[in-house]
Amino acid sequence: MNQNEQEPRQEPETDPPEQPRSRTDRWIKVGFLAVAVVVGVIIWRWQGRDPPLVGWGTDLNAALQVAKEERTKVVVFFTRAPMGYDDKRVAKSCIRRPLAANALRRMGYRKVHLTTRAHKQYAKQFDVTETPTILLLDPDGKVVKRHEGFINDLAFCNEFLGVTGAEMSEPNRPSAP
């Protein structure tokens, strides 16, 4: 290269000047963040709700009285208030499942859901120390069967209620109480 010849100078690339952010942009971002937080809280609260136990009463004395008249038994489901993780698991994967619900309906058992907080006298009477606890009571209120902890719908029907799958698949066949 010749001394007189110089390489062309290259200007360093510079970013285009930043545009000042408008207040509207900030409010859009804040609004989007607020909506995301509200939606997250709603989803979190929805998932934390106790599953509904449709058809389950809360009056044990009335259920025992009806059970005496109908010569049947009473199933009592003890949970905490609000329901804990295991309580919800049993409610969702056992009590609310069609197999268990149909077995209880076909056998004519009375169903009672009690919380240990609101029904301390019954929790003490039946020695409920952990939840979930499921009791099968005769019409006089004596414990026939007891299960503490998790149980799925099939084990609930077969082992706890004594109903087989074959009995459940036969239509209009009443099961013995």
* CATH top level class name of the largest domain: Alpha Beta
What is the helix/strand order?
A: HHEHHEHEEHH
- How much of the sequence is in beta strands? 5-15%
- Mean pLDDT over the residues: 84
Q: What is the CATH topology descriptor of the largest domain?
A: Glutaredoxin
The backbone outline, from C-alpha atoms, is: elongated
The CATH architecture assignment of the largest domain turns out to be: 3-Layer(aba) Sandwich
Number of distinct helices: 7
Return the domain count. Answer: 2
Strand order of the largest sheet: 2-1-3-4
Which consecutive residue ranges, at least 5 long each, have pLDDT under 50?
A: none
Describe the biggest sheet? 4 strands, mixed
Question: Could you tell me how far the N terminus lies from the C terminus, measured between alpha carbons in angstroms?
Answer: 108 Å
What percent of the residues sit in helical stretches (DSSP H or I)? 40-55%
